[in-house]
Design a protein that fits this description.
alpha/beta, eight-stranded parallel barrel, about 300 residues, about 15% strand, TIM Barrel
């Protein structure tokens, strides 16, 4: 296998499902995770240790983590919104956690019921304890490319938040385009500003939503700016429960197809990834929006033949 030059961080079991009104059974979630685990992915965000009443879809996080399949080379992640979430993640045996804060104060209040400053102060302790426990840490900066309530978010604000998270000890900063307001020039400008401020490219990731159809173009802009880590959700599932109108995440299949076609190995088996997307569509009982996903579903490839053109 060629050495991968692009890393795909899969978020469907957590970010993809959190906005779904129909709560999937634990066995169904595990079936999805097992299908994704067979694709060659190295990083899979499977759940969140959030208060069950906030996100009923993820209320079974403890039970899910206990039954995760052990796959060499695959690291499971869980989102923790606060110290209690971290404590539960540690008790469950999670080895890698993500945190989240919004660059927009209004979105942060709606998402976490705290100001941005309050969230950052709490995350300093969460990240410190997680690092002391030997956990890997990545931190999301939501609304990094625009806020549905405040509009344009100053680049300087995003840079300040990212620098603080870096100083707290976050190993990776994932820039979230929560409602797809970004465009290629804004992506390039933000990445350049962060690098100029002292955050290395290898510690940056892009988490893009396709609300306005620009997610794949933004991913390419990020790649051309030097970013090599991209979040995706199989079949384009997902949305943000605290941002009305937010469409699904950038589809993992679309990312993998684009980069592989460009000669940039991802290490992910596209046919197996597409199969996981079809499984998820069956589990949810509704069509999912990923472009490659829809093409593969309509493909007339013969049984057993690769559908990769």
């Amino acid at each position: 296998m060629k050495r991968r030059s692009v890393r795909i961080y899969e978020v469907a079991p957590r970010d993809g499902l959190q906005n779904e009104p129909e709560v999937l059974d634990l066995d169904d979630k595990l079936a999805l995770i097992e299908a994704l685990a067979r694709t060659g992915l190295t990083d899979l965000e499977v759940t969140s240790f959030v208060r069950p009443s906030w996100v009923p879809q993820l209320a079974d996080s403890d039970h899910l983590v206990a039954r995760l399949p052990r796959v060499p080379g695959l690291r499971y992640w869980a989102l923790v919104p606060n110290m209690r979430g971290l404590e539960r993640a540690i008790e469950a045996g999670v080895g890698a956690i993500s945190t989240v804060v919004s660059a927009s104060d209004t979105h942060n209040r709606k998402n976490l019921n705290r100001t941005r400053a309050e969230t950052l102060a709490a995350q300093a302790e969460v990240i410190r304890l997680a690092r002391d426990e030997g956990l890997a840490v990545r931190s999301y900066v939501s609304t990094a490319l625009g806020c549905p309530y405040e509009g344009e978010v100053p680049v300087s604000t995003v840079v300040d938040v990212a620098l603080r998270l870096r100083d707290f000890g976050a190993g990776e900063i994932a820039l979230g385009d929560t409602t797809g307001m970004g465009h290629p020039r804004s992506v390039r400008a933000l990445v350049a500003a962060l690098v100029d401020a002292g955050i290395p490219l290898e510690r940056l990731a892009l988490h893009l939503h396709d609300t306005r159809g620009t997610a794949l173009a933004n991913a390419l802009a990020g790649f051309e700016a030097g970013v090599r880590s991209f979040d995706g959700a199989v079949a384009g599932v997902g949305g943000c429960p605290y941002a009305e109108g937010a469409a699904g995440n950038l589809a993992s299949e679309d990312l993998v197809y684009m980069f592989e076609a460009m000669g940039e190995p991802t290490g992910v088996d596209l046919d197996r990834l597409a199969a996981a997307g079809h499984l998820l569509e069956d589990l949810l009982g509704r069509p999912l929006p990923g472009r490659y996903h829809r093409w593969a579903a309509a493909s007339t490839c013969e049984a057993g033949e690769s559908c990769i053109a």
